[in-house]
Amino acid sequence: MNDLIEAVEGYTCPAQRALRHLDAFLADPMCGQCFPCALGTYEARARLESMTRGEGTDDDVRVLERIAAAVLEGSKCRKGKDAARFLAEAIATPGFGEHAAGVCRDRECRSLTTYAVASDICVRCGACKAACVNDAIFGEPQQAFRAGYPAFEIRQRRCERCGECAAACPHGALRATDVALTGGRSR
User: Fold this and answer.
1) CA nearest 102: which of 185, 28, 169?
2) Does the pLDDT value for residue 182 go beyond 70?
3) What's the whole-model pTM score?
4) Domain 2-101 maps to which CATH number in 1.20.1440, 1.10.1470, 3.30.420, 1.10.1240?
């Protein structure tokens, strides 16, 4: 059980926590004595993956609730019951259902988050561009005695949404927003 708890440490997003918990649960051997546990956890994992990719629906949330209840009731071992309780607690957490609408409050689901440069704050220092390993940031650092430099811009198709650029910016000019609020799904 401790290895299952360690798998979710460092995550605050309830969907990510539930997904990591199920990943750790499924990595260990199962007893195979009960079908709800053996089949339900795989279905729950598939639905959680689709939710964290931005493809989830309200039906996924309802199915996950049913899976958690069925596994809790039908599981014969403590490990299965603990996994079902963890899933049920994650579903009850505020913010879990928002994933069906394409919103991750905690900005841990990369497919649900996008980054943008606030041109009014950007001083064109180039720290974000240097931090981006995918060359997703377009623009030139400003040089002394030269004018006409546009603000940096993020190429969303190349961006992996790792957040390194936002962490590197000393002025806080890079902002994370929800993909659903920018008018569409990512990728």
Assistant:
1) 185
2) no
3) 0.75
4) 1.20.1440
